[in-house]
Write a structure and sequence with these properties.
The protein is mainly β. It contains 1 helix and 18 strands. A hairpin with a 6-residue loop joins strand 6 and strand 7. The model has no long low-confidence stretch (mean pLDDT about 85).
Length: about 260
């Protein structure tokens, strides 16, 4: 609903009567709380017109304000034409892919990225602003896991899609299944200060895990006593039971004890 008004001032020492002609022709989308009345001497009155449409519509109408002396002896003292212009339009914001993101299984402490595309398919500019949060008290604090770039911006009417990148870097193991983590405010920038006209929830799914492996034996490998010049083999096993490949490197380490033995 939108409301507009015109302030009428009576600067004379006499009361004045007024009437607004053409109200019935405005249609059901308009409401005029008061279409006639009396303004006391040296007083003012706010003439308001309210507009509320249930469908897209463009209206151009003309109202006629007539001012009389209270007793209507003299007749019309003044007339004013008031142009009424109003438009109701659909907000048509397209979000791909369908306001839902699935990061799948990702590694903790590594970046995972997903992308949304926002398209303004309407007639006028729209603004957007993303925020991160979760109302579920059973979930860990996840606000620091997500960053959105750009976090806010303006979408031109019928323009090209704007890409918004969501980066997730979990610092712990966490499981999310279509949780409402992100919210996108749709803002009408033409209204003074910007007015939020809709809030869209972006649902997130992911499974964040650490790498998991096992080395057997877990401690030292003991070759026992050996005859000089003979060979003996020992084995150890590296087992990866996580979700991702792991890479390992074997390097030779010389202990201080070994160095002292050779020096002696």
């Amino acid at each position: 609903r939108d409301s507009r008004g015109i302030m009428m001032h009576n600067k004379t020492p006499l009361p004045l009567s007024w009437i607004l002609q053409g109200v019935d022709a405005l249609g059901d989308e308009f409401m005029v709380p008061q279409d006639q009345g009396v303004i006391k001497p040296n007083s003012s009155f706010l003439l308001s017109v309210q507009f509320r449409a249930k469908r897209p519509i463009l209206v151009k109408k003309l109202l006629r304000l007539e001012v009389y002396d209270v007793d209507k002896i003299i007749g019309i003292l003044q007339t004013e034409n008031i142009q009424v212009y109003a438009e109701a339009y659909d907000v048509d914001l397209k979000i791909e892919p369908a306001a839902s993101l699935d990061f799948g299984t990702i590694r903790a402490n590594e970046d995972a990225k997903q992308q949304l595309k926002l398209t303004n398919k309407g007639k006028y500019d729209l603004a957007f602003k993303f925020s991160v949060g979760c109302s579920d008290p059973t979930l860990p604090t996840i606000k620091s896991m997500f960053t959105v770039s750009p976090q806010s911006g303006t979408l031109l009417p019928r323009g090209k899609p704007t890409a918004v990148v969501i980066v997730c870097r979990p610092d712990k193991e966490v499981s999310l299944k279509e949780e409402s983590i992100l919210s996108c405010q749709v803002i009408e920038p033409s209204i003074k200060g910007g007015e939020t006209i809709a809030t869209l929830d972006i649902k997130i799914s992911l499974q964040a895990v650490f790498s998991r492996y096992k080395i057997t034996p877990a401690w030292d490998i003991d070759f026992g006593p050996l005859i000089y010049g003979t060979d003996k083999s020992q084995n150890f096993t590296i087992e990866n039971y996580g979700h991702f490949p792991i890479h390992f490197t074997l390097s030779r380490m010389i202990s201080e004890l070994g160095i002292q033995a050779r020096l002696g």
